[in-house]
Each structure stands twice: as C-alpha cells, then as structure tokens.
Amino acid sequence: MKVFIKQLEISKELDLPVNVHSRSSAKVTIATMKELGIRQALLHNFAGKPSVAMEGVQAGFFFSFPPAVSKNEQRTKLIRQIPLEHVCLETDSPALGLDKHVRNEPSNVTISCEYIAKVKGISSDVVMEVTTQNALRLFSKLKI
User: Which of 6, 38, 55, 69 has the most crowded CB, counting CB atoms within 10 A?
Assistant: First the structure.
C-alpha cells in the first residue's frame, strides 16, 4: 500500500494519469485514489463489482477491458453498466486474449471494441470514436 500511495503521489506531482490493475482490491484501490485526490486514472482490466465501478465513474475514472472479457459474464455486466464515456479500449497483449494459449496481439483491440459495441447495443464505429476521445482526454499530453 505504501508503494501504491507513493506512485499515486508521483502521478499528481507530474500531472500524469495513473494506469492501475487492482487484483481483488477494487474497492480499496478506488477509495485510496479518491482520498488522495487522483483525477486522472485508468483502471485497466477492471474486475470489481459494478457498484464499486460506479464509485470510480463518479470520480471521473476510466475503465478498460481486454479481449478476454468476452468470455466473462461479470465483465459483461460491468461493461453494460459503465457509461461509454468512461471506457477505453485495451488488449493487454501479449496476455488476456481470447485463448490463454495463444499470444494476444495489439490488433486484437478490435475484439474488445466489437464486444463492447455488442453489449451496449451500439455500432463499433461509435465505440471506436468515443473510446478514442476518452483516451485522448485521459492522456492529454499526447501529441497527435
């Protein structure tokens, strides 16, 4: 926890977003980030409860999901509940593809995009556009 807090403090000092993978600690992670005043955060491969995710949404955090989520009903519920304006795309390559025995590739980001579109009942073009804008807002120092 001390190291995590130090990393959060550094992100604030440098005015950079944090990218957090919280395994089995979503509630504590989000609460800690809120207590420290973190405003820019991506909770990558988020696997917490929907109610905890909504606390992150209220704090302005973003959530991303790799292709493997298409095989997980709990993540489907999360994707359905989290507003698209708080979602980013990811692959987490070389891990977390559709088949754990096959190397995941960056090009598989389209799998995540198409699955999110299916769950939300919208086009993949809309998901692509909104999530791109979300990423640009979160990583605002990117020069594109």
Answer: 69
What is the maximum span of the chain, computed from C-alpha positions, in angstroms? 42
- DSSP, collapsed to helix, strand or coil, labels residue 93 as coil
Residue 31, H or E segment: helix 26-35
Query: d(Cα 22, Cα 37) in Å, to the nearest integer?
Result: 18
Cα dihedral 46→54→32→112 (10° resolution): 20
In whole angstroms, how far apart are CA 67 and each of 11, 27, 103? 28, 24, 12
HSE of 107, CA atoms in CB hemisphere, 13 A: 1
pLDDT tens, residue by residue, 36-85: 999 999 998 888 889 999 999 999 999 998 887 777 777 888 999 999 99
Neighbouring residues of 126: CB distance < 8 A, sequence distance ≥ 6: 84, 117
